[in-house]
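Subject: for your reference before the review

Hello V.,

The reviewers asked for a structural picture of the protein, and I figured it would be easier to keep everything in one thread rather than splitting it across files. Below is the amino acid sequence we used in the manuscript, unchanged from the supplementary table.
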Amino acid sequence: MSSARTKGFGFTLLFFTLIALGCHKAPINTPPPPSNNAPPPPPPAPAPTITLRAQPATIDRGGSTTLQWTATNATSVTITPGVGDVSVSGNRSVNPTSSVTYTATAMGAGGSATDTARITVNAPPASTDTTTPTRGNITNEPLGDAFPKNVKTIYFDYDKSDIRPDQVSTLQSNATWLKSNQSARFTIEGHCDERGSEEYNLALGDRRANAVKEFLVAQGVAANRIMTVSYGEERPVCREATEDCYSKNRRAAFTLNQ
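And here is what came back from the structure prediction:
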Protein backbone atom coordinates (compact mmCIF):
# COMPACT_ATOMS: atom_id res chain seq x y z
CA MET A 1 0.00 0.00 0.00
CA SER A 2 1.45 3.36 -1.01
CA SER A 3 2.06 6.17 1.44
CA ALA A 4 -0.58 8.43 -0.18
CA ARG A 5 -3.25 5.72 0.08
CA THR A 6 -2.36 5.11 3.70
CA LYS A 7 -2.76 8.78 4.54
CA GLY A 8 -6.10 8.95 2.72
CA PHE A 9 -7.39 5.98 4.65
CA GLY A 10 -6.30 7.60 7.92
CA PHE A 11 -8.09 10.84 7.15
CA THR A 12 -11.22 8.97 6.25
CA LEU A 13 -11.16 7.03 9.51
CA LEU A 14 -10.63 10.23 11.53
CA PHE A 15 -13.52 11.96 9.73
CA PHE A 16 -16.03 9.24 10.50
CA THR A 17 -14.81 9.04 14.12
CA LEU A 18 -15.40 12.75 14.62
CA ILE A 19 -18.90 12.45 13.09
CA ALA A 20 -19.74 9.59 15.43
CA LEU A 21 -18.58 11.55 18.45
CA GLY A 22 -20.56 14.65 17.40
CA CYS A 23 -23.80 12.68 16.98
CA HIS A 24 -23.63 11.12 20.45
CA LYS A 25 -26.40 12.69 22.63
CA ALA A 26 -25.69 13.86 26.14
CA PRO A 27 -27.57 11.92 28.82
CA ILE A 28 -30.83 13.49 30.11
CA ASN A 29 -30.76 14.41 33.79
CA THR A 30 -33.92 12.91 35.30
CA PRO A 31 -35.11 14.68 38.53
CA PRO A 32 -35.19 12.43 41.57
CA PRO A 33 -38.58 11.09 42.65
CA PRO A 34 -40.39 13.11 45.33
CA SER A 35 -39.42 12.30 48.87
CA ASN A 36 -41.92 10.43 51.06
CA ASN A 37 -40.27 11.63 54.25
CA ALA A 38 -42.18 15.00 54.60
CA PRO A 39 -43.17 15.70 58.23
CA PRO A 40 -46.85 14.94 59.06
CA PRO A 41 -49.22 17.89 59.71
CA PRO A 42 -49.52 18.94 63.35
CA PRO A 43 -52.38 17.34 65.32
CA PRO A 44 -55.55 19.46 65.83
CA ALA A 45 -55.72 21.56 68.99
CA PRO A 46 -57.55 19.79 71.84
CA ALA A 47 -61.11 20.90 72.51
CA PRO A 48 -61.77 22.96 75.66
CA THR A 49 -63.69 21.55 78.62
CA ILE A 50 -65.38 23.39 81.50
CA THR A 51 -67.32 22.53 84.64
CA LEU A 52 -69.49 25.02 86.53
CA ARG A 53 -71.00 24.46 89.97
CA ALA A 54 -72.94 26.54 92.50
CA GLN A 55 -72.45 25.97 96.22
CA PRO A 56 -75.10 26.00 97.57
CA ALA A 57 -77.52 25.55 94.68
CA THR A 58 -80.54 26.74 96.72
CA ILE A 59 -80.62 29.96 98.74
CA ASP A 60 -83.15 32.24 100.38
CA ARG A 61 -83.76 35.64 98.83
CA GLY A 62 -81.13 38.05 100.15
CA GLY A 63 -78.56 35.27 100.56
CA SER A 64 -75.52 34.50 98.43
CA THR A 65 -73.92 31.49 96.78
CA THR A 66 -70.55 30.80 95.18
CA LEU A 67 -69.99 29.90 91.54
CA GLN A 68 -66.99 27.59 91.05
CA TRP A 69 -65.56 26.75 87.62
CA THR A 70 -62.57 24.95 86.08
CA ALA A 71 -61.63 24.92 82.37
CA THR A 72 -58.96 23.07 80.38
CA ASN A 73 -57.48 23.84 76.94
CA ALA A 74 -59.11 27.28 77.15
CA THR A 75 -57.76 30.79 76.66
CA SER A 76 -60.85 32.64 77.97
CA VAL A 77 -63.98 31.99 80.04
CA THR A 78 -67.19 34.05 80.17
CA ILE A 79 -70.09 33.56 82.61
CA THR A 80 -73.57 34.93 81.98
CA PRO A 81 -75.78 36.55 83.08
CA GLY A 82 -74.04 39.41 84.81
CA VAL A 83 -70.62 37.97 85.67
CA GLY A 84 -68.69 38.52 82.41
CA ASP A 85 -65.10 37.53 81.57
CA VAL A 86 -63.31 35.60 84.31
CA SER A 87 -60.09 33.63 84.77
CA VAL A 88 -59.82 30.10 83.36
CA SER A 89 -60.45 28.65 86.83
CA GLY A 90 -61.81 30.35 89.92
CA ASN A 91 -64.86 31.22 91.98
CA ARG A 92 -67.21 34.17 92.40
CA SER A 93 -69.83 35.03 95.02
CA VAL A 94 -73.24 36.04 93.59
CA ASN A 95 -76.54 37.00 95.22
CA PRO A 96 -79.37 36.68 92.68
CA THR A 97 -82.79 37.91 93.80
CA SER A 98 -84.66 35.34 91.72
CA SER A 99 -83.97 31.85 90.42
CA VAL A 100 -81.45 31.91 87.58
CA THR A 101 -79.32 29.63 85.40
CA TYR A 102 -75.70 30.69 84.94
CA THR A 103 -73.84 29.60 81.78
CA ALA A 104 -70.04 29.37 81.55
CA THR A 105 -68.45 29.35 78.07
CA ALA A 106 -64.80 28.35 77.55
CA MET A 107 -63.03 29.34 74.32
CA GLY A 108 -59.76 27.96 72.98
CA ALA A 109 -57.86 27.05 69.81
CA GLY A 110 -59.82 23.79 69.65
CA GLY A 111 -63.29 25.39 69.77
CA SER A 112 -65.66 26.10 72.67
CA ALA A 113 -67.49 24.32 75.48
CA THR A 114 -70.26 25.32 77.90
CA ASP A 115 -71.68 24.21 81.24
CA THR A 116 -74.55 25.53 83.35
CA ALA A 117 -75.45 25.83 87.00
CA ARG A 118 -79.01 26.47 88.24
CA ILE A 119 -79.55 28.51 91.42
CA THR A 120 -82.97 28.37 93.05
CA VAL A 121 -83.91 31.41 95.13
CA ASN A 122 -86.61 30.78 97.72
CA ALA A 123 -88.92 33.72 98.31
CA PRO A 124 -89.91 34.37 101.93
CA PRO A 125 -93.40 33.15 102.79
CA ALA A 126 -96.26 35.51 102.14
CA SER A 127 -97.54 37.42 105.14
CA THR A 128 -100.27 35.65 107.09
CA ASP A 129 -101.46 38.88 108.73
CA THR A 130 -105.28 38.83 108.47
CA THR A 131 -105.86 42.28 109.91
CA THR A 132 -107.61 44.76 107.67
CA PRO A 133 -104.97 46.87 105.95
CA THR A 134 -105.01 50.61 106.20
CA ARG A 135 -106.30 52.09 102.99
CA GLY A 136 -103.52 53.77 101.05
CA ASN A 137 -105.89 55.65 98.77
CA ILE A 138 -106.68 58.20 101.46
CA THR A 139 -107.94 60.78 98.96
CA ASN A 140 -110.71 58.40 97.82
CA GLU A 141 -109.87 59.24 94.23
CA PRO A 142 -110.84 56.71 91.55
CA LEU A 143 -108.64 53.63 91.51
CA GLY A 144 -107.79 54.22 87.86
CA ASP A 145 -106.28 57.60 88.78
CA ALA A 146 -104.56 56.48 91.97
CA PHE A 147 -102.95 53.36 90.52
CA PRO A 148 -100.42 55.00 88.11
CA LYS A 149 -99.55 57.60 90.77
CA ASN A 150 -98.63 54.98 93.37
CA VAL A 151 -97.40 51.94 91.42
CA LYS A 152 -94.16 52.85 89.70
CA THR A 153 -92.20 51.28 86.84
CA ILE A 154 -89.15 49.14 87.69
CA TYR A 155 -85.94 49.28 85.62
CA PHE A 156 -83.33 46.62 84.84
CA ASP A 157 -79.68 46.39 83.85
CA TYR A 158 -78.75 45.26 80.33
CA ASP A 159 -79.52 41.59 79.65
CA LYS A 160 -80.61 41.00 83.27
CA SER A 161 -83.84 40.09 85.01
CA ASP A 162 -82.58 40.43 88.59
CA ILE A 163 -84.15 43.18 90.71
CA ARG A 164 -81.59 45.99 90.97
CA PRO A 165 -80.75 47.08 94.54
CA ASP A 166 -81.73 50.67 93.71
CA GLN A 167 -85.19 49.46 92.63
CA VAL A 168 -86.02 47.53 95.80
CA SER A 169 -87.43 50.52 97.71
CA THR A 170 -89.69 51.40 94.76
CA LEU A 171 -91.02 47.85 94.65
CA GLN A 172 -91.60 47.85 98.39
CA SER A 173 -93.60 51.07 98.08
CA ASN A 174 -95.59 49.48 95.26
CA ALA A 175 -96.31 46.48 97.46
CA THR A 176 -97.44 48.66 100.38
CA TRP A 177 -99.96 50.51 98.21
CA LEU A 178 -101.19 47.32 96.53
CA LYS A 179 -101.79 45.64 99.89
CA SER A 180 -103.77 48.67 100.98
CA ASN A 181 -105.89 48.53 97.81
CA GLN A 182 -106.76 44.89 97.51
CA SER A 183 -109.42 45.43 94.87
CA ALA A 184 -106.73 46.40 92.37
CA ARG A 185 -105.93 43.60 89.95
CA PHE A 186 -103.11 44.39 87.58
CA THR A 187 -100.69 43.19 84.91
CA ILE A 188 -96.91 43.40 85.02
CA GLU A 189 -95.46 44.05 81.55
CA GLY A 190 -91.91 42.93 80.77
CA HIS A 191 -90.05 45.15 78.28
CA CYS A 192 -86.55 45.19 76.69
CA ASP A 193 -84.40 47.49 74.61
CA GLU A 194 -84.00 46.75 70.90
CA ARG A 195 -80.71 44.85 71.15
CA GLY A 196 -80.97 41.08 70.74
CA SER A 197 -83.32 38.94 68.69
CA GLU A 198 -87.09 39.22 68.97
CA GLU A 199 -87.35 35.72 70.47
CA TYR A 200 -84.62 36.39 73.03
CA ASN A 201 -86.16 39.66 74.15
CA LEU A 202 -89.61 38.10 74.54
CA ALA A 203 -88.09 35.52 76.89
CA LEU A 204 -86.10 38.19 78.75
CA GLY A 205 -89.20 40.35 79.17
CA ASP A 206 -91.06 37.34 80.60
CA ARG A 207 -88.28 36.74 83.15
CA ARG A 208 -88.38 40.41 84.18
CA ALA A 209 -92.14 40.43 84.68
CA ASN A 210 -92.06 37.24 86.73
CA ALA A 211 -89.14 38.45 88.87
CA VAL A 212 -91.25 41.47 89.87
CA LYS A 213 -94.27 39.27 90.52
CA GLU A 214 -92.22 36.98 92.80
CA PHE A 215 -91.00 40.00 94.75
CA LEU A 216 -94.52 41.37 95.26
CA VAL A 217 -95.87 37.98 96.30
CA ALA A 218 -93.04 37.69 98.82
CA GLN A 219 -94.14 41.08 100.19
CA GLY A 220 -97.67 39.79 100.76
CA VAL A 221 -99.48 40.75 97.55
CA ALA A 222 -101.82 37.91 96.55
CA ALA A 223 -100.59 36.08 93.44
CA ASN A 224 -104.13 35.72 92.05
CA ARG A 225 -104.30 39.51 91.63
CA ILE A 226 -101.30 39.56 89.31
CA MET A 227 -101.00 38.76 85.61
CA THR A 228 -97.76 38.94 83.61
CA VAL A 229 -97.06 39.54 79.93
CA SER A 230 -93.90 40.10 77.86
CA TYR A 231 -93.76 42.59 75.00
CA GLY A 232 -90.03 42.16 74.42
CA GLU A 233 -88.79 45.09 72.33
CA GLU A 234 -92.19 45.83 70.73
CA ARG A 235 -93.27 48.77 72.94
CA PRO A 236 -90.32 51.10 73.58
CA VAL A 237 -90.87 54.39 75.36
CA CYS A 238 -87.74 55.83 73.70
CA ARG A 239 -86.39 55.16 70.21
CA GLU A 240 -82.95 56.76 70.20
CA ALA A 241 -79.89 54.49 69.88
CA THR A 242 -78.31 55.70 73.13
CA GLU A 243 -77.67 54.03 76.47
CA ASP A 244 -79.90 56.54 78.22
CA CYS A 245 -82.74 55.58 75.89
CA TYR A 246 -82.03 51.85 76.17
CA SER A 247 -82.14 52.09 79.98
CA LYS A 248 -85.67 53.54 79.84
CA ASN A 249 -86.88 50.61 77.72
CA ARG A 250 -85.48 47.91 80.04
CA ARG A 251 -88.44 47.92 82.42
CA ALA A 252 -91.36 46.24 84.12
CA ALA A 253 -94.43 48.44 83.83
CA PHE A 254 -97.78 48.10 85.63
CA THR A 255 -101.28 48.41 84.18
CA LEU A 256 -104.53 48.23 86.08
CA ASN A 257 -106.91 45.49 84.89
CA GLN A 258 -110.30 47.07 84.26
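For the response letter, the relevant points are probably these. Residues 47 and 111 are 6 Å apart (CA to CA). Confidence is low (pLDDT under 50) at residues 128-138.

Happy to draft the paragraph if you're swamped.

O.
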